[in-house]
Amino acid sequence: MPGNKVSRPCHHCRSRSASGPADTSKIHYEKFWLYRHCSSLQQRDRQAQKAGQLFSGLLAMNVVFLGSAFISSMIFNRVAITLADVWILMTILKVLCLFWIIYYLLGTSRQPHAVLYRDSHAGAIWIRGSVLLFGSCSILLNVFQIGYSTILIHCKSKVDIVFPSIGIVFICTQAYFLWHHCKDCIQVQHNFTRCGLMLTIATNLLLWLLAVTNDNLHVEIESQLREVERRFAGKAPFSHPLFTALCTCPDTTICKVFQKGYILLYPFNTEYCLVCCSVLYVMWKNVGRRISHHHVPHAKPKFKLQGVVFGPLLGTTAVIIGFCVFMMYQIQVTSLVPSRQVFVMYYSYYIVLLPLMSVGAVIGTIIHALEKKELDTLKNPTRSLDVILLMGAALGQIGMCYFSIVALVASDPRDLLNSLILSYSVLLIFQNITQNVFIIDGLHRQRFTLPGKEEDTKEEQSREDQRRMSVLELGQELRKASLSYIHSYSHLTWKRRALREISFFLVLCNIILWVMPTFGAHPVFENGLERSFYGYSTWFVIVNFGLPLGVFYRMHSVGGLLEVYVTA
């Protein structure tokens, strides 16, 4: 663990926001025993920071490998390693994370000069809102799981009740921690904080992996539904190779509510784990980071609906039609034998919408290329993470699409429904790629500043020089800048307006494409085509791997598109 060195005591406040540079006399430089002989204090600090990141990363890697080995053993050998064993390991990790988070809240963050800087780019309101939304849904999921296990206590173990109970405490504590401290650039106890953050990231990754691969309760519900169908058809009872001792849910309303609630809220838990990992990673990158005043934005652009008409109009139309399709789909798919027409309607909606989104993203990218705005090359961990998450989350949908393409081409691609799913898969891949290019290019463009704000910024940065200028000279400089701005604005008005229209249209489209799978529309699993080709368990893992990433991609795209809209 590193020690900390303070040049001299300071009487100023403990914490400072990102509105200005902090006094260098308060800085706690990092130290590491491997680099204790470095002559330069700054060089020793940089090397200690790299070593701390390396060791904390190794800790997370070992925890993830250990947990993955447990989960894989449970999948391939359910006799030696049971789900209860995996839950015990996860409970230990959760308790360790809880101890560290409480220590950070009550100890580390309250030390003198612990938080000298706060990253203004980290912890956007939509990210923190997602943590609260998905965290609340995850708490309800655990409540439903506790209720379901309590009703079936005769065939369930006590671990089925203890694990979700600890999960509720973990979710509440972590959500509070991320809401209040996601912007912190901690300057004390650097390596201990890095290790705590990496342990929490590893725990959330393992919880996500467990949610993706654990299909026990889904198998129970699937078995009961198939049992009902076979009784009506007069066939033999349904059995699943991975689940033999079936816990039959009593024919009561409360048990059915717990079942339905669990299935409905299941994707939110995986989303919560992914969002927490992204926020925690930014905090990990910001440990020991010192932000100069050049990185601090002087004025944040505000969200305004000025000059946009067609984007909101087309986007609202897509949202209304999508909501109607979603409601009709939900009504039809809840029956024992879903109508084939409802799948045709669902995929037809996507086949119409996805090309429009792709064309909009391509046009927006071309407009970016025509603009003469400089690229923002300042170091920004949040933006770098946004790019990684957009590219990584898109792999979920793209991977599922390629699995669907292989299954459909190998079966009967000339069938109407198969042709629609095939077209949907190809269009979805193209839409993800074009939208990623548009968002990433927009995120790296410098903000557009109004002339008044631009002059205010220059005045703040060169106040001493302006004092030496006469009033007449200053007025002439302002006139030149204003004329230059008016000339450039007249040439860029249509480009900025087109970018805003496209961004707003894509925001609304991504919102409805996020709502539909999040609240229960899963035709990739319910149409039965890919499931019959790959098998129940294999397709279950593929869907639970790709679907949460797809939902996370839509949600993250909304944030990126809003950033592009505001900075256009």
UniProtKB/TrEMBL annotation:
Any one GO molecular function term: proton channel activity
Sorted UniProt keywords: Cell membrane, Hydrogen ion transport, Ion channel, Ion transport, Membrane, Transmembrane, Transmembrane helix, Transport
Cellular component per GO, a single term: plasma membrane
Ranges in coiled-coil conformation: none
Major site of localization recorded for this protein: membrane
Family per record: Belongs to the otopetrin family.
Name this protein carries in UniProt: OTOP3 protein
Taxon lineage: Eukaryota, Metazoa, Chordata, Craniata, Vertebrata
Gene expressing this chain: Otop3
